[in-house]
Fold these 2 entries.
Entry 1:
Amino acid sequence: MSLFGMLLNWLRSKTCLLAVLFFLGLAGLVVANVFVRPHEAEYVFDVYPGFWAVFGLIGGLAMVIVMKKIVQPMISRGDDYYERNS
Amino acid sequence: MSAIASGFVHPTVGFYALALALPFLPGKAWKWLLLIPPIVAIWSVMTIEPGLYGQASWLGQTLLFGRVDKLSLIFAQVFAIMSLIGMVYALHVEDKLQHIMACVYVGGAFGCTFAGDFLTLFVFWELMSIGSTFLIWLARNERSTRAGFRYFLYHTIGGLFLLIGLLMRYKAVGNFEFDHVIPAQMQVYDWMILLGFCVNAAVVPLHAWLPDAYPEGTVTGSVFMCAFTTKTAVYVLLRGFHGVEALAVAGTIMCVYGVLYACIENNARRILSYHIVSQVGYMVAGIGIGTAMTMNGAVAHAYAHILYKGLLFMGTGCLLYAAGTTKLNELGGLVHRLPWVMVLYMVAALSISGMPLFNGFISKTMTITGAAEAHRTWLAIGMEIAAVGTFLSVGIKLPYFAFWAKPANDKIELRPIPANMYCAMAMGAALCIAQGLYPDMLYRYLPFEMEEMYRPWTTWHVLQALLLLGFSGLAFYITREIITPHAKTNLDFDFFYRLIGRGALALVSKPLAWIDDRWTEAYRAVGLRGLLTLARGTVWFDTKGIDTVVDGSAYTVQNVGVLGAKAQTGRLQEYLGLAAALGIGIFALVWYLA
């Protein structure tokens, strides 16, 4: 294993620390958004601080939950579905 | 048409010359020749002046091989760069046929880009289709063989739409010139041509060939394919059909549709394929909206997309090459064994996600901002949703489950990855970052005049991108147990294509086969007996008629010959006597008649 590989493996053992850093970073972005706003709103809502944070979070959650929990059970078949049915 | 200039080295020539020469080159040194056509192509497109080059007459038609303008040049430029990266990536491949087909395919893409008329375009369009089909077949397994046939069938149908359209157009307007169509004046034939282009652009619901075929291509072939087919289609749509409202809506649907399917996919190369549909959606939408900014956004995004998508396919190609699979449920825990593949993949993953510092940031945001400025708010919102999904699937899900999830995996056997594959990925990654940092590298080639050039590097744009992507990342963190990929086949529109195929097969094998059976019976009962009677009659005629006549004349000739031979005694006095008798006879006859 290369030195770089070992470093990456070491990072794997520090997931808690990385998660905390990630959350702090996100909080920092939202705080920054209070001060930095678009010069003119491209959309009606993006003058409000945190709009894109909510958009990304809700959009992401909705996409994963709807697709994996509702849509996939309806449209998925066995991995070899087409091999068996052709 | 203005004057035809000379001095243009058409990039296609180099690729086709190599394709023709490769079968005859012995030894192993030929592999270095693979780099020559891309280098010539880069030199050619960087040095050529805009103008019209290479006109020819054929069957009374004027063919234009070299329409060189800002639009064709920027596409040709990125094609040339990608062909070099692709060839470097494929340097270790010893199967000559793969290289030949890559040349046929890439050469076709250049041919389409510089084509000034529909006939030339159509020929190169079909050559691309043939080349790419082989790049799938040459994976040489059963799945790829089947996928290749489906791919070829589908593109043949797409090509036929184009052919029907251009022939109908010829009938109506009397020429094959390929230029912009005014959206309000589009005729049926224009729509047919548009439909043919849309098949190659993978516009939903005509897209399902793409995620069906690209995951089955060869490791190196898919790298070429992800770059050229859809982007050639984007180029022709941009040239011929910008401002068509249907494309604006269809493009946004593509953006969202692709990410939704990628969200539930398990096969890494299929995830990337769905993201081609999604990313090409941005371009198609930009073309449809049709302002200078959205069209420049489409061009810039095509350029950036070719580089990062090639890099993504190279990264997953490394996984396939080393581990023998791209199914995420079979991978995981590989980061310490393939660290550089992960890093180079991540450069592309962050690029496609539109992360600042990478080239997706300077291209994707241009189209979205352009859409918003053109007051197409819903379209812009759709593209933003797609941006969230892109980061979720390609930016986090794919690398997480391929490299990070599961404990360190030391059991799976990995084939060493050749240095040239790393080298090609490093080239792609360097360009993705360089363009992200210096947008002008790309912007200066953009073909459409804008009042004010778009500036991606503003504090607000950076913050907006970070907020959007950061919180998409949080959504992944929360749902990481739910989004875990499962080994499933997700039905897409190809389910219906296959139904049509199966229907055609059933029609052939059931009703038509029944008719064929009945016909065989009837033939046996009536036809065969009739034929036998006819044969007997022929035999009788042959013996009694032909033989009598032919044999009879033969015997007559023989008998005359025998008589003649007997007459030839060789005695002079007899000949003289005979001649005298003949002479008297003729004299008597003449005297009598006179």
Entry 2:
Amino acid sequence: MGAGHAHPLHLDRDSRVHRLAPEVKIVATLLFTIVVVVTPREEFAAFAGYAVLIALVALLARVPAGWLLKRSTIELPFVLLAVVLPVLGHGERVDWLGMSLSVDGLHGAWNIFAKGTLGVLASLLLAATTTMRDLILGLDRLRCPTVITQIMTFMLRYVDVLIDDARRMRIARLSRGYDPRFLWQVKAFAVGVGALFLRSYERGERVYLAMLSRGYAGRMPSPVEATAPAREWALSSALPVAAAGIAVAAAVLA
Amino acid sequence: MDDVRAMHIANGIINGPVSAIFIVVAVAGLAVCVRRARVDLDDRLAPMAGLVAAFIFAVQMLNFQVLPGVSGHLLGGTLAVILVGPWVGALCVATVLLVQALVFADGGLTAIGLNITNMALIGTAAAYLLVALLLRVLPRTIASLGATALIASVIGVVVASLGFVAEYALGGTTQLSLGGIAATMAGVHTLIGVGEGLIAATTVVTVAKVRPDLVYALRAFRKQPIGAQA
């Protein structure tokens, strides 16, 4: 079944970015996103600079642009929100193609679109270059409480089991000629969910007891105990440092 | 805001200072939960917590139609609270959100504080208080456990969505009218809450019938398991 080793957004390649320790990648992504979010929305040049940085990292990580773009459609709901803002917003208005658009709404739309897209792309790069196991290891090394990493480990162990079981049950239901998809048919869905839950719990309980009897004590054994060398921290800090440099340059030049 | 997947706030919807404040709020809240959860987390609860988190994670991927054009997914806070208790439950929801932000780019990394505050802290706290109240006053039957799950889900989801409205009032980056947002959010989330409530109720009732020992809320509020006399 291969549960818990990869996730749908992981891109199995070998690159300098893939080989970096997970904790340095998490920190770099987080810092980069913070720099992007605190940049004032009028600094258009700065956002272009961030996009270039993302493209460079993608190149270094050997993640194809098409792959990134296809998966960045997850933020589409927010893009829709961005589209309605200029029409619904208040304040000063401009005319464009016969439509009266709010200036504040246009800025707001740009703000959501630019920051949202850059954030999604940064997260996608992290996900593409890091397996789930490594992410948990990284969070553990960043002193994330073991209760949380423990819940996360089990969650990832079970999520594939659940999805597979749900698929089997759905196929069984479909093959009996029933396909509930509307609110008034929610009972069939809910009953299936209840049965799914119990089936999975009893499987999970057995797995957990088996783990306990093999010496599990709240933390998965790690093959490499070493933490990230300073060189990796330095390499990955290039991304947030460059982003901060762009932000400062844009603020000074403006 | 018709698409309910917008439940996970992305980067840049709420301004930087407010996002930062709520990261502090979320970290403080989760720190309390972590401390209290250590007491709760025994051999029975550990796999249950993982399963509840996995379950919320999986069920959030299954979108169901609420109205034409509006699809929703579960938040799962009430389910978590009833099955694993408030502290571990909040951590389960927070873990799901963290993984979604890190791995699935769903919900911005800088908005994680907002999302955790709304869904893992405010939503589950409201649900837990209701569960605690209702299980004490309602008759000790399976049906009233289901009713509790339903009511707590609706209120929990709506309260979580109003958390977003409050954050938007504090630091929204655009000037949409606040009343309009509040009405839209509350309206859409009442519908979601009903769907969520029905599913949470059925799941909890199924578990309570077969394995009443697994339901945290029953252990906490009803010393004698309701399955015992059946």
